[in-house]
Amino acid sequence: MDFYVRVFVRIYTSASAMKNTPLKLSYVYQCTGCDSFHLQPVGRTISKNNSVRYLPGFGPAVAQECSDCGKKFNMGGPIWSAPIHDQEWLTSILEDVKQDKDSYPAYNRISAVLTTISEELIDVPLFVSLHNLCATLKCTSPSAVIFRSAVLNAGYHISGTHVNPLGLKSDAPMDVIWDIMRCWVKNHPVKSQAPDQPGSVILAREPVLQANFARAVASLSKAQAKKVARFLPNPERHWGPKLRAGRQITSKHVSLLGPDAVNGHLNHENSEEPEAKRHKRDDTENPTSIS
Questions:
Q1: Would the pLDDT of 291 be above 50?
Q2: What global pTM score does this model have?
Q3: Rounded to the nearest 5°, which phi and psi values hold at 238?
Q4: φ/ψ bin of 8: left (φ > 0), alpha (ψ from -120 to 50), beta (otherwise)
């Protein structure tokens, strides 16, 4: 389950389902300076009486320059911005796995992934990294509990993500996220930076929102409160797909996999060399004269 998945796809061909597809897609604008991102839906609807009209989405969703740091945006997509998880199915499959856990050799990993996914915000497609936010401001990082509490106390929702242990999903807009970080830096000052740096531009503005870092009751998920494992370590060092058979070993593989893994792969290949071929090569390397 670490590298390969089997996907079952259900295809809807009705006209109404096709018309709803653009409503579930969005373009992404991401700042090149502070990594703030904004979504622009591909489609929209207008309801009048009992009829619904499907129209292209309004845009652009942002100005030419980022409102937080003044840098330009990169544009990507469209991405799927609608929910990707069925909460009812997740709950049922997690219960089934727990009831029959002896049948699953990888039960710990399966339950950890399903538990993490079941606690995600379903209507937030992307996440922010707390460490990346702090790297932009060159400040010390608050704990996830403190940051979660500030978001919750501001009236928004927040959760983790199964993609990254340090990732956080929230329906709070980016200006609220940066206001929380501005308030954090006021209590934990940073060294002066060049005035044109994104972090300097962000910190030069006073926060509109005064963050409350008092610990909120919901700052820990149910799994975290019960100390349920959500991200398990890899079974071994350099865990991942091995080299393809017959592929030439280069310095890149040594840097990625480590010398031990590469040497083990080479030794394994040498041990599988056919006996006849090995004898033939030995005869070629050490010829004997016939008198």
A1: no
A2: 0.73
A3: 55, 40
A4: beta
